[in-house]
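Onboarding guide, step 5: your first structure request.
Type a short instruction followed by the sequence, for example:

Predict the 3D structure of this protein.
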Amino acid sequence: MTQRWLGWVVGVGLLVGIVGCTSGGADVGGAGAEGAEPEGTIGLLLPEAQTARYEASDRPTFLSVVDRRCPGCTVLYANAGQDAAAQLQQAESMLAQGADVLVLDAVDTVAAAGIVVQAERLGAQVIAYDRFVDGADYYVSYDYEFIGFLLGSALVGAVTDRAAARAEDGRPGVLLVHGSATEPNALAIAAGTRRALEGEDIDVLAEYYTPDWSPDKATEWTEAMLTRFPGQVDGILAANDGIAGGAIAAAKAAGLDPVPVTTGQDGELAAVQRILAGDQFMTVYKATDQQAATAAELAVRVLRGEEPRTTVVIKGVPTQLLAPRAVGAADVEHVIVDGHVYSTDEICVPAYVAACERAGLIGPDADAAPLAAGEASR
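The system replies with structure tokens like these:
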């Protein structure tokens, strides 16, 4: 099995010292630690809760880091539930409560420019988080075009190997299931994917931009494409793990065994389990706790009037880019378990015990070498 995509990382990865915060909400600000000298207010605005990372990782890490780094800081928190208008109101509320710095993961990056304008008018600074916003003071994210390249490279290697093993004539066919067409990160991932597919002996049968990154919509579209291209779909490039889950559900409902080679992104627990079971080929893991910690440290430094060091400038905005990691079955133990992303107890629930044993995560062979990618289901 081709392994060329495994272990690639962005060359501009940055690790900032871990640092912390008190929680609050959009309407009620969290007070700083008792007895600490008040230093100011930081607002954290996240876009939605459908993607597991935001409430499970980004929010608690950010709050913890600010708490340790700035005991006298107050933090206001709000989740927009994928509603750009609601996010604008949340930002206005935070600014009215005296927020000095907003850390903004925008629902709609175009509409979010209005938040930047209001913050500037009131003397507050904005750190764009995960999604680029024009006019922001700083930006903390990953290289999403490179993530797309990782996904595309993984797909190319796997479907090419599968086609060669079948020894059949004809080019392999793939479906591209992107994220939301209104989201810059989704467009960057799509661009990286196309770069990886360029010049390869593979047919792109169809592609789709998934509204709101909805797994349900991804399922519906994939079902329709599997009906339209019977027996022709060798691989599915899913832009994140939620979309991957929807696409895999569609393939299983269509009775495909094995399911087409399917990629993903985010390193969600369900995706890790699907990888071990052989249903999903790989995911791109982004250390969201590291990203949240970096943003929290940056927010504290900006609040204190410092000029933080950054790694690159994007469209005039000082930026800190972090390093993603491609994860297949062979990488789960080293990257996910040893990296304390998920424990074997979390991964190896009853439905996945056999898959975990085959991968050497639990059982008598737990210390043996892990499986090569794609071998989990054999």
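Each response can be followed by summary notes, for example: Residues 144-286+326-359 form a domain with the Rossmann fold fold (CATH 3.40.50.2300).
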